Amino acid sequence: MQLTSPFSSILSRGFATALLALTPQLARAETGSLLVELNKMEEIEAGGCRAFFLFRNQTGKSFADFEMSLAILDGEGIIDRLLSVDASPLPVQRTTLKLFEIPAITCSNISEILLHDVTSCKPQNEAEMDCFPILTLGSRSSAKLVK
Q: What Cα–Cα distance (Å) separates residue 61 from each residue in 30, 83, 103, 107, 136?
């Protein structure tokens, strides 16, 4: 006959809670991260802004498909437009540079770029996956890049 005390029951529940809280970090550590960095922006002669993004793929997987929906916020923080950008392919353990043009708005009038959605994230030879948990965002530009 096994006896359980209220103390051991509390310890068991505490351990289970701690394990559940750590699960996202453990999954992230297992798969690595995908850094998306807004590195710089420059004005386009014909009008508009060119955004330079760096993708640092430390996930252990190559991505055959990676598409994002971005909300562009103007200087007053108001959504100016939604853009869909295709950043694929993203090779494993590589840093990839991708350029995207944002027409009809100056770079100085972009305050923030919101990663609204990842519309496609498919590792090579695998099923589609949810990439939000493995994404890390950063910006070296005057505009912020946020989730």
A: 11, 26, 33, 33, 16
Determine what percent of the chain is predicted with pLDDT higher than 90. Answer: 77
90, 96 contact by CB (below 8 A): yes
Amino acid identity, residue 122? K
User: Cα–Cα distance between 49 and 110 in angstroms, integer?
Assistant: 9
Q: What is the pLDDT of residues 104-114, one digit of tens each?
A: 999 999 999 99
Residues 122, 107: Cα–Cα separation, whole Å: 31
- How is residue 12 written in tokens? 């068991």
- What's the token pair of residue 128? 């589609």
pLDDT for residue 19 is more than 80: no
